[in-house]
Amino acid sequence: MAELLFWPALLAYGEAVVAYIGNARNPGLAGRAATWGVRVGWLVQTALLGVQAVRVEGFPWATWAGSLNLFVWLVVGAYLIWGCRAPYRLLGLAVMPLAAALFALARVGGGTAAGPRSHYSNIFLVLHVGLVLVAFAGFTLAAGLSAVYLWQERRLKRRAAGLLRLRAPSLLTLDALVARTIVVALPALTLGIAVGLARVRSDRAHLDALMVLTLLTWFVYGLFLLLRYERGWRGRRSAYLALAGFALVIVVRLGLPVTHFS
Amino acid sequence: MKLVLVGLSHHVAPVELRERVALPLEAAGELSRDLASWGLEAVCLSTCNRTELYVAAADAAEAQERALDAFGRLAGADRAELSSALYRLADGAAALHLLRVAAGLDSLVPGEGEILGQVRSAYEAGKPGALLDRLFRQALHAGKKVRSETAIAESPASVSSAAAALAQQVFGDLSGRRILVIGAGKAGELAARSLASRGADIAFVASRTPARAASLARQFGALPLPLEAIADQLAAADVVVSSTSAPGLVLRKAEVAAAMRVRRGTPLFLIDIAVPRDLDPAIHDLDGCYLYDIDDLEAVVAESLAGRRREAERAESLVAEEAARFREWQAALEVVPAIASLRARAEEIRRGELARAESRLGRLTEHERRTVESVTSQIVNKLLHLPTVRMKEAAATAHGAVYADAVEHLFGLDEEAT
């Protein structure tokens, strides 16, 4: 059943990617088709996650591939909050190809099938993995918004004649959305790290490299907010810092199979 | 009913002629009523770019004559003088023309929005009958459809609207954004008005001449400033519009850099429409500063107009669909009288035969009467269904009149009418 749901979801995400590309070339109907692709794909993926949860009777995303599946669902869900509106369709071009590729990767790793039950306690997984993934989904969206900001800012600086043909959200809107997304995501990461550290302490284990990198990620996003609200950092510098934080998120995600799921 | 259009527009008539036949809305309505007194349907559409008379009548030649007379009176000229500038269109071509006009496809700037309102006003002030009523409603529908389903009206078509649209790319909603206008000239005022129409607040007006600064500032409730005080207010402004006739720069990079430090990362959008330029081009290199001069804005407008022309191709196909729908409706009008006469004749025969049968069959009960009524009606309807459908189909392929004549002849409907 889970396998049967994977393909329609991937197909819908793929359709959204193609339609977003079409919309960038010729804004209009393709944009609407892209939005519907994302909606349908996300709903089918929700059903897939539901089937996985029912089959395993617990938290079925304890493998790296399973957590990737859940991560994609969170990213697309977060994107849908704004992505359905026409001015934010360009963001889809940044988010959806990544989401579709990661979703396919999750399947290759077996993360979209009904896997074995985790040996971790469910409450730990829900809190630690869930909160960290929510935060990472937020940071991914913030990175997408930052990328669109930098692209739009570059167009304005280059005085591109086609600026008004393919319209993006305004610089101020993008800048504010990046900050707002990080304001929501950072507390989730803070709590997720706190739960993880509590478990490390109770198991009398040591911090590994991935945990240190996760703490470094927290520090970068903390610095982002500190500089923004205390020193007035806005615009391009702020967008670069959000992308630097996202680079760490990618490293942490890539390190997961080696350290946490080996 | 035949549809006739007689008109002139910026495509064929110089402004000297257009202004002679241009009518305010009340006068256009009066002209429509005047034509209607001759038993015609009439709507007069008059804008700065066109004056067109849409007339519907049973006799197309008479409708055209009346419209040409009206133009002759308006222009104060004879027909020979007007003939090269006037276009005359009939039926399908006239309908397509109005639909294109309402969609903005016949305008100087493709997709301009004002014309749709002007078509609506002309329709409301005119004296339309069944045909013009349908045509104008369809034109208004087509105009709205083109604007909602294509991006033809989305891009700016002037330097001032391009400046405002670019400012929106930086700030989004312009409500509450503060504008500093440097120079009290017409170009700067236009750009500032365009920004103000999108919610921005004209906060400061600076000019070398204090009286002119004060005069323009009064219009917008802004603070008048001498040119020397610009730098002090930069930190408080979000958009700067400059259009002085000063021979040198009025604002330098160092002054803007100082203001940007106070603004704590809030961007500043600068529009320089002066020649020679007022604002130091190096300002654009500052982080958070976006400076556009007249050439940059004109390039944006040119690209935007090219985009409108591309969208116009899509709009043309939408308009053609609507025009085809109108033609089908108009063609069906040709067979409607024949269909109505045929059905009336059949009903008359049915009732007559029933009356005769009733006298022969004696007294029927109420139930029997209803049964007989129902059965005979069904027979008549079934017999006439296919001819009715075929006549409507023929009307859509322009053979409607032939079919209508044939039916009238075969069933003797024309003889009855006489």
What key phrases describe this protein's structure?
heterodimer, A: 262 residues, mainly alpha, 8 helices, 80% helix, flat, B: 418 residues, alpha/beta, six-stranded parallel β-sheet, four-stranded antiparallel β-sheet, 16 helices, 10 strands, elongated
> SS-based structural class of chain A?
mainly alpha
Rounded Rg of chain B: 32 Å
Global mean pLDDT of chain B: 88
End-to-end Cα distance of chain A, whole Å, is 27 Å
Question: What is the strand and helix layout of this fold?
Answer:
The complex is a heterodimer of chains A (262) and B (418).
Chain A (H helix, E strand, L loop, with lengths): L1 H24 L3 H28 L7 H20 L5 H20 L13 H37 L12 H32 L6 H23 L3 H25 L3
Chain B lengths: L1 E8 L5 H7 L3 H12 L4 E6 L3 E8 L2 H16 L3 H5 L3 E4 H12 L11 H12 L4 H20 L9 H13 L6 E5 L3 H11 L4 E7 L2 H11 L2 E4 L3 H4 L5 E4 L10 H11 L4 E5 L16 E5 H68 L4 H31 L3 H11 L2 H5 L1
Parallel strand pairs in B: 5-6, 5-8, 6-7, 8-9, 9-10
Antiparallel strand pairs in B: 1-3, 1-4, 2-3
Structure explained in plain terms:
The complex is a heterodimer of chains A (262) and B (418). With 262 residues, chain A is mainly alpha-helical. Chain A has 8 helices and no strands. Chain A has helices at residues 2-25, 29-56, 64-83, 89-108, 122-158, 171-202, 209-231, 235-259. In chain A, helix 4 (89-108) packs across helix 5. Chain A is flat and about 60 Å long. The two termini of chain A are 27 Å apart. The model of chain A has no long low-confidence stretch (mean pLDDT 86). By secondary structure, chain B is an alpha/beta fold. Chain B has 16 helices and 10 strands. A 6-stranded parallel β-sheet of chain B has the order 7-6-5-8-9-10. Chain B has a 4-stranded antiparallel β-sheet with strand order 2-3-1-4. In chain B, strand 2 and strand 3 (50-57) form a beta hairpin. The longest helix of chain B has 68 residues, at 294-361. The two termini of chain B are 20 Å apart. The model of chain B has no long low-confidence stretch (mean pLDDT 88). The A-B interface holds A 27-28, 152, 156-157, 159, 161-165, 167-173, 232-238 and B 149-151, 155-156, 162, 165-166, 168-172, 264-267, 284, 287-288, 290, 292, 296, 299-300, 302-304, 307.
